[in-house]
Specification:
By secondary structure, the chain is of the alpha/beta class. It has a single domain, classed as Rossmann fold. It is built from ten helices and seven strands. Strands 3-2-1-4-5-6-7 form a seven-stranded parallel beta sheet, with helices on both faces. β5, α7 and β6 form a beta-alpha-beta unit. α2 crosses α9, α6 packs parallel to α7 and α9 packs across α10. The N and C termini lie far apart (about 40 Å). The relative contact order is 0.15.
Length: about 300
């Protein structure tokens, strides 16, 4: 077990770059959680393949409804910008356009990583299509939510995670080490009241991480899920008519955390040579912050976001 993360922690003599030598793929990293994770992996020295559909030249074109609700003319963020941030923070960012619903594009992505690097140490499954069908209503009985939410959350959400894992896992198994992280939401199995589709999708992602862990553990490969709280993503900030520099002026955002808080959790897990002990479980970012001793960008250890009324 001590060799689980040999390729990533062998360079730990450099405390400022504990993930130097680590090869990571972060899916859905144009913005939000994926961007925060990629940036923090870069800050730890990793090589990060930043994937998604939005490039500087061509943003993803399936978010028209969400843009209208947020009052935005264009979708913020791109894989190119995130890759640049990874490099600026001390890692090596590589932008690769990939529609994670398309198996042929996912195959090409992992073929490229294998060709370029010879291995993958960390896969972060974050690509999520649920926002594509969001109509501004989160809290409603299941019979009032559009069935389109099933397609966006499962066919373009859960399936994305499984598809990427299917191609990353054999590379890790051959190496006898690796880590697959699934981003989810979890509050100790409490029901995400008001959105049955979302509850089912997130529970499926957590179960996916658990199931993969059972099959990967004999090969020295870990799989786990990480649950952030309420993140101040670009779209959340836009919805509250503010930005990262001024969010504290909005009392409604007092319980939020930055996407980089989640990123620091993933970086801490990636640098833990005993991460196999955590395999199969869902880990809340707030709990990991206390365990590993990291803070959010504003120096706080933000408490876990808990569902009210359960």
């Amino acid at each position: 077990m001590a060799l689980l993360w040999h390729s990533c922690w062998m360079h730990n003599q450099n405390a400022n770059r504990p993930l130097k030598g680590c090869v990571a793929v972060v899916t859905g990293a144009s913005r939000g959680a994926g961007r925060g994770i990629a940036m923090e992996l870069g800050a730890a020295g990793a090589t990060v393949y930043v994937t998604g559909r939005s490039t500087r030249a061509q943003p993803a074109d399936t978010y028209g409804g969400l843009l209208a609700l947020s009052g935005l003319a264009v979708l913020p963020g791109s894989i190119d910008e995130t890759a640049d941030e990874v490099t600026r923070h001390g890692g090596r960012g590589i932008a690769v356009r990939c529609d994670h619903t398309r198996e042929d594009e996912v195959v090409r992505l992992f073929d490229r990583v294998q060709s370029d690097e010879g291995r993958i140490d960390l896969l972060v499954n974050n690509a999520w299509g649920g926002h594509e069908t969001f109509n501004g209503v989160f809290d409603a009985p299941f019979w009032e939510h559009p069935l389109a939410n099933w397609d966006s959350m499962f066919d373009r959400g859960v399936r994305n995670h499984l598809l990427a894992s299917r191609f990353a896992a054999p590379m890790m198994v051959r190496a006898g080490r690796g880590l697959i992280v699934t981003t989810t939401y979890w509050d100790r199995d409490r029901y995400l009241r008001g959105n049955l589709f979302y509850d089912l999708a997130k529970a499926s992602m957590s179960r996916l991480a658990f199931g993969m862990a059972q099959e990967l553990r004999p090969h020295g490969v870990a799989s786990l899920a990480v649950s952030p709280g309420w993140m101040r993503t670009e779209l959340v900030l836009a919805g509250h008519k503010t930005d990262e520099a001024h969010w504290q002026e909005r009392p409604a955002l007092a319980r939020t955390e930055s996407p980089r808080y989640l990123g620091r959790a993933v970086a801490a897990l990636a640098g833990d040579p005993l991460v196999l002990h955590k395999s199969g479980a869902v880990h809340r970012v707030a709990d990991l912050a206390r365990e590993y001793g990291f803070t959010d960008v504003d120096g706080r250890q933000v408490e876990a976001f808990e569902i009210e009324g359960n």
